[in-house]
Structures are given as C-alpha cells and as structure tokens.
Predict the structure.
Amino acid sequence: MNQQTHAWIALRATALLEDAGENPQLVRLLSTYAKDAAVGAWLPDLKSAKLGRSDVDNHIFKMKPLPPDDPQASRFIANRQALTKRLGPARLVSQYLKQPEQLPEAWWATPYKAEAKPGQHIPNCVMGLRLTLTDLLLMGDSQLQILIPGEVEFVRKLHAEARTPGQQAALYFFMISHFVADACMPCHCDARKLASYAAGLHQKLEEHWGDTVGKYYKDTKLPQCADSPDQILKKARETGDGFDLAFKNSVPKIPQGRDAWLEMVDVCRGSFALACIMVPFKAGEPATKCKFDDVFGGAAGKQLLADVDRIAMHDAVLNTAIVWKEVWNDFVELEKRQE
Ligand SMILES: [Zn+2]
C-alpha cells in the first residue's frame, strides 16, 4: 500500500474508535496529532527506517505449501471452519471465506508456512511495537498521563526528558497501523512470484487503492492543511465511502488466551486465502507475471475487485483499531485493579 493509503487507514481507524465510543482518551490522543498520520503510518516503509532490502515487499508474511511429508505439516493446516472461527464474524475476510464456493476443500487441507527475513515478519513487527507502546505509555509525560487510565506511580521518578510526549506516543500508534495494514494486503502474504511487486498485479492493486483514497492524505499535503482534527476524521469517513465501506461502529476485543501476534498470523492466512481466490493456486505455478486486468477484467473481475477492495480496506481499518484498543486496554485494566 502506498503512503496515502496507509495514512487514510490510520485516520479511518481513529474515526472508527471514536464512533465505537469506547476509548475517548485514546481518540483524543490520536486525533490531536491526526496530521502526523501522513508520516507515522508510512514511516516503516521509508528507506532509512526499514530493514528491508528493497523499496517494496518490506513487510511480508508470504506463505507457500509445505511438502505433505514435512514432520510439521499438520501444525500448518488451518481448515475453513477453524480459520474463520478464529478470525471471528467482524472481519469481512472471515465472512467471505466462509462461503464454500470461494476455495476448494483441497486448498484448505494443504499446510502453508510463511518465511520472512528478520525485520520483515509482519506479526513480529506488530507485536514488537505493540509491547514497546505499552512501555512508552507507562512512561508518559505529565500531559500524556492525564489521558491514560490508571495511575502509574513510578513515572514521577523518571527524568522529565525521559518521559514520552503525547505526540511521540501517537506516532507509534500510527506506525503500528502500517504493519497491521500490510497484513491485510493479499500479495504481502503470498509467496508466489506472481504476487511480487514487480509482477504487475501487486503494484497495480496498490495504485488503485491509492487513487481511490486520493491526494488529501499525501505527506506533502495533510501535515500542512488547515483542517481541524474533526474535519480530518470526517473526511476519512467520507473517503471510506469510495470503497463502499460500512462499519458496525464496534471494535471487538482480542479473545482471552490470544494476542496481537496470533491475530496477525491468522489475518495473514486470511489474506493469503484471498490472494488464492484472486489468482487460483495451481500446482507447479510457473507464472511470474500477473496482469491486474486479467484478474479484474470483465463483469466477474469487477465484482471480485469490489470485494477485494472492501475486504482489504475494511479489515485494515478494523484490525488497526483492534490492536490499538488492546494496547490501551492494558491501562483500562490497570485502572480497574486500582479501583
Ligand atoms: Zn510496509
């Protein structure tokens, strides 16, 4: 996804949290620095910030079949029922994959495993920042502590300059949104050559999303614009209409016994399934190029593109809000314990 798409996803997730009405202080923190989303949500893809080796395909969890005789094969099978149950009803990808006609049973019976170089592994990137952010919030400066639920007693012992300003905390929230959004990009989760950025489909799909989102979110425009936080969030809601998005205005909790890492692994598996609906899996898979128009041409292709747009964009926004809320709920729980 390009810079403007990442920025919009972070802002739409902020608006979703506001509409869900559950974490007003978190919404206040994020919306105060809404303009920073243009940089923060894009920062992990900037050349000097990343461990990736190229301009593209930096944050990936690309899956491919394991040989059936691999001793770990059974661990890497997630059948339709199991995966859609873990993903839950709120994610559109789950609703879509529940339809038995979308993927043959043989696809679901195959073990798939992802490989990613250090620094590229999406669930690791999400989990690393998610834990870092809890610590940054714990050490928040006096202004930030006003927003954070619960009392953090040791924070006064820290040097004032060692404490986290609100703007920095907001920046880290926006950075997490980048990795979460990348997990929702089907081509980032598909090891086939045809899903690489250079093969065609991947690049065109990201350009299509960027064009739909529009230039308002560009890092050369948004930070300088005169709009208020409320106006920016209103605009982010309207931009979602371009993808025909309808949000339920609630953000589910990560179930007990699970964490952001496990959620992201399953989200990536769902994205890989979506990639295999876009371009069906063939044994041997010789294709190295894949044209956007071959996948999304004709009436059926148009419908498929509308579905992929809706699923990827809706779930990128929702998953971002889910992970943000989980970070914040550490402090909501702290407050409950202190009551
Ligand atoms: Zn990325």
Remarks:
- The mean pLDDT is 93.
- The pocket of zinc ion is lined by residues 44-45, 58-59, 178, 182 (CB under 6 Å).
